[in-house]
Design a protein that fits this description.
alpha/beta, Rossmann fold, Helicase, Ruva Protein, domain 3, 3 domains, five-stranded parallel beta sheet, four-stranded antiparallel beta sheet, 17 strands, 14% strand
Length: 504
């Protein structure tokens, strides 16, 4: 849409323009979007039946809004998408400080311009992208930052006393007149700053350096907060909380399917990674399951939350781990393996807050535990668990496979092995391929190898095999002999245990 050719207040009067508040503007455009089945919140996944309806109701009610939820729940993204409900352009007095409406001037500057030029007063057109202001609340945010302060340089230049409104340097909120103003992490603001916000919301006035300025600001306020912040770093003062009309609770994805959609949408993969590296749905599910396990883990602080950014970073690292291996082996393409999950450890440790028990275990150990739990959880979707086999009197189903390990055999799956080396390692294990093909008779070769590796990991989680983390890979052995060897090693030399860490 081209900018409106109207350039003066007189022309604006002739066009039939009528001022409207930003809340009415949002309401009007939301009604149009609903009638035309247009989604202004494109890219927000998993909130169609929960958050979005509540948000639409708040906008229709012309409410100031607070989005309350744990980190990584798209609170800020939702706020930023509200600009889609603004008119594309609105008129303002040219040269005014506060986006003044030509028919309802607010600032002294705009009033003086209109008084001097009348209908010939120049107007400018403001695009909706310029009508959004966002501020991260921190304890050092001051009244001057948000509201404004007296500018001594302006006072000296204009030769005006400090009591004159024209010497005020307005802060972010007055400059967001007729706009959306977002404050992230509201409880982090000092109480006196929150009271100043309350005065703006309730009384439409600001107080700067001892004198009061009446400013009926027209602003759509959106606040975000983490429930934990109420007690951890601060709280929202009661008068302000009471003045925020609608509190909308956000949440994490409720299913792996929704979580996968978010991860794929947000993950930034290179063209090379997309073209050269294949990922199986099993690995996609495992990445998401890690986050689900973390949110329910006794080692992770549930009040802090586990951001959706964990799975996004893990997904990206998963591809990069496979890409690095592919480059080292001078291969043109590869597929992601179960063992590549150990390349996402850094994505996990940096995204979780541990409780005391988790700190005792250590971040890396907790990350391994979460991966193992995710594998165990999804194993039952692909293969029969030992418990189910016992119920169905098939207890010896895996016996031929585990018996081979019981004869002293072991398998090392090296993290940087080539595609051919990886295949040869798995194929040499008797009965492993047969078991997989019994359940997946028509899969392609890469999927077959992946399921074979996954079966080894799953059996180790059910204590039918022993899994050891090597410096450059994973070793699978017989569980009983591993336990005996470990006991023997402990008796002979306790220090030997530091050469390998058992994560099973």
């Amino acid at each position: 849409m081209e900018i409106n050719p109207i350039s003066t207040i007189g022309e604006l009067k002739e066009s039939g323009y009528k001022p409207q508040s930003i809340k009415d503007e949002l309401r009007k455009n939301l009604i149009t979007a609903l009638q035309k089945n247009i989604n202004p919140f494109e890219g927000i996944i998993g909130y169609d039946e929960t958050v979005i309806p509540n948000l639409q109701t708040a906008i229709l009610s012309r409410h100031n809004i607070i989005l309350l939820g744990l980190r990584g729940q798209a609170k800020t993204r939702i706020a930023r998408l509200l600009i889609n409900l603004l008119d594309e352009y609105i008129p303002a007095v040219e040269g005014s400080e506060l986006n003044d409406d030509p028919f309802i001037p607010l600032s002294r500057t705009a009033k003086d311009l209109i008084a001097e030029f009348g209908d010939k007063t120049k107007i400018t057109w403001i695009h909706r992208s310029e009508r959004y202001t966002e501020k991260l609340a921190t304890p050092d945010v001051s009244v001057a930052d948000l509201i404004g302060d007296v500018d001594p340089i302006k006072a000296a230049t204009l030769k005006l006393p400090y009591s004159d409104e024209r010497v005020i340097h307005f802060g972010l909120i007055p400059r967001s007149h007729r706009s959306i103003f977002v404050i992230n992490e509201l409880p982090d603001l000092q109480a006196r700053i929150q009271v100043a916000l309350f005065n703006i919301l309730q009384e439409n006035d600001i107080q700067i350096r001892g004198f009061k300025v009446r400013l009926p600001l027209d602003i759509q306020f959106v606040f975000t907060a983490n429930p934990e912040d109420y007690t951890n770093r601060g709280s929202i003062v009661t008068p302000l909380k009471d003045r925020i009309d609608s509190q909308i609770i956000t949440h994490y994805p409720k299913s792996i399917l929704v979580s996968k959609q978010i991860t794929k949408q947000e993950a930034k993969l290179t063209q090379t990674q997309n073209q050269s590296i294949t990922i199986h749905p099993l690995l996609e599910d495992l990445v998401e399951q890690i986050a689900f396990e973390a949110r329910n883990s006794e080692y992770v602080d549930s009040k802090s939350g586990v951001s959706a950014r964990l799975t996004i970073s893990a997904y990206e690292n998963l591809f990069s781990t496979a890409e690095r291996r592919m480059i080292l082996n001078n291969e043109k393409n590869t597929f992601i393996r179960i063992s590549d999950l150990y390349g996402v450890i850094s994505s996990i440790t940096g995204k979780i807050e541990l409780v005391y028990e988790g700190e005792q275990e250590g971040p890396s150990k907790v990350a391994h535990i979460l991966i193992n739990k995710a594998i165990k959880k999804l194993f039952e979707n692909y293969f029969p668990t030992p418990e189910n086999l016992k119920k169905n009197q098939l207890a010896n189903f895996y016996q031929n496979l585990t018996a081979w390990f019981g004869k002293g055999n072991s398998v090392d799956i090296l993290l940087n092995s080539s595609n051919l080396e990886y295949e040869n390692t798995l194929i040499k294990i008797p009965k492993l391929k047969d078991i997989v093909q019994n359940y997946f008779p028509k899969v392609d070769k890469n999927s077959l190898l992946l399921y074979m590796e996954f079966l080894l990991y799953g059996l180790s989680e059910y204590s039918l095999l022993s899994k050891f983390k090597l410096e450059n890979g994973i070793q699978f052995k017989d569980m009983l002999s591993s336990m005996l060897n470990n006991n023997k090693a402990e008796n002979e030399d306790d220090d030997e245990n530091f050469s390998r860490a058992n994560f099973s």
